[in-house]
Amino acid sequence: MAKCGACGPGYKTPLDAMKGPREKIVYLPCIYRNTGIEKPDYLATVDVDPKSPHYCQVIHRLPMPNLRDELHHSGWNTCSSSFGDVTKKRNRLILPSLISSRIYVVDVGTDMRAPRMHKMIEPVNVFWKCGLANPHTTHCLGNGEIMISSMGDPSGNGKGGFILLDGETFEVKGNWEKGSNIPALGYDFWYQPRHNVLMSTEWGIPKVLANGLDPADLKTGSYGRYINVWDWTTHVFTQSIDLGEDSIPLEIRFLHNPDAAEGYVGCALSSAIHRFYKTGNGNWTAEKVVQVPSKKVNGWLFPDMPGLITDILISLDDKFLYFSNWLHGDIRQYDISNTRKPRLVGQVFLGGKIPRDGPIVVVEDQELNCQPEPFVIKGKRVQGGPQMIQLSLDGKRLYVSTSLYSAWDKQFYPDLVKEGSVMLQIDVDTEKGGLKANKNFLVDFGKEPDGPVLAHEIRYPGGDCSSDIWI
Asked: What is the spatial distance between Cα 414 and Cα 198, in angstroms, rounded to a whole number?
């Protein structure tokens, strides 16, 4: 067996994880904020076992006790960074709320198919103990603590700090960062102790982006442009890597091999992938390795439509890079055997803003000869575009959801809010590369009991390639 249950949580190495069991259920936060439905967000458990009679069905819903939280991303109380510690068990899912700043701790250990609430951390505890708000990414640390990145302060201004939780009691311990020099913005992060580094990214000022994207806010410093570099040992912010004004660097991933001193970040608005790496003098820098060309269009907010890269993943063997273009509507697969020169080997369109029968006309396109067909599966036309992605441990299945953030969903894809999001599955060729939609897989969140809902990030009970860090 690849998994050693008596050796603590997770797997010894990323390659061991690839030999782990096939996913049978997944968890997704489901959001009602900005939908017009006055119901709490909830955690959905979805059956993804082809042998199950409940395949492609939501089998459990855990509602939050409050309205308008805006659940977003999730993480674990412990993971592969604590492999070898037999006292640790992956049995609590951490659910930060992007808007309310509450943090929920969910018990998935008692019954993984029917999670239950374990603890709720009220925002006042985060405000007073950390001076932070708008929590986003959760990562478990090898020492047993839990760290959550923040996007702002309690007044809605930008502030890129980190919240520390006790891994046993889930009490707020305080800030991870030291000193007064803190980045003006925050979002995602990844760490690698072997290189004494933590990297964080920037979305925007919470009170500016809360209700949608206003073009007037661009070129004002309201949106992110930097990778921020931290000293892992001293917790001090040491360096910023400029990726360009309003580039909006979102998801950041080191290669999974803990010896690797490089990785990738996806920039949403500039629609570029940058490779970051350690230089010979010990500093860090970045180079652009993929550029998705904007399309010149009529009938849209701007005359140029970016791809809007919103999520990226690296396969556990560090062979492939995947990312989603939420506006253009495609997912791409790149061979990264040469990390400096990613090579496009797979692409599939799953919706987006530019179907050929839609109101937007593409007048100049550097990549396509014609606008793509609308994506229809099991008789349902998919609204929105591919957004959050999650790869199976063996790399053969890519799960996709279509909601980005409720206010931006409402602005850019109003029919997505009316009809609800979906989860799709893409078959992956792991030998030569290639992506193909599984036409037998559809989870339609438009048919939920309380009405259409916006499902977001996808998480496996045993960990995955965006939750676990090897140290």
From this structure: 37
Distance in angstroms (rounded) separating the CA atoms of residues 56 and 47: 6
> How does residue 6 score in pLDDT terms, banded at 50, 70 and 90?
low
| Cα distance between residue 1 and residue 142, in whole Å | 23
Q: Which residues pair with 311 in a beta bridge?
A: 324
- Rounded to whole angstroms, the Cα distance separating 326 from 97 reads 22
CA 351, CA 70: separation in Å to the nearest integer?
24
pTM above 0.90, yes or no: yes
Query: Tell me, what amino acid is at 276?
Result: F
- Residue 8: band (very low, low, confident or very high) from pLDDT cuts 50, 70, 90: confident
Tell me what pLDDT residue 5 has: 47
Integer angstrom CA distances of residue 416 from 30, 68, 444: 13, 18, 11
Q: Which two tokens stand for residue 137?
A: 């990414």
Residue 55 backbone zone (phi > 0: left; psi -120 to 50: alpha; other: beta): beta
CA distances from 46 to 59, 175, 406 (A): 6, 34, 21
Length of the chain: 471
Cβ atoms within 10 A of the Cβ of 301, count?
12
**Which segments of 68-209 does DSSP mark as H helices, in order?**
123-130, 206-209
- What is the chain's Cα-based Rg? 20
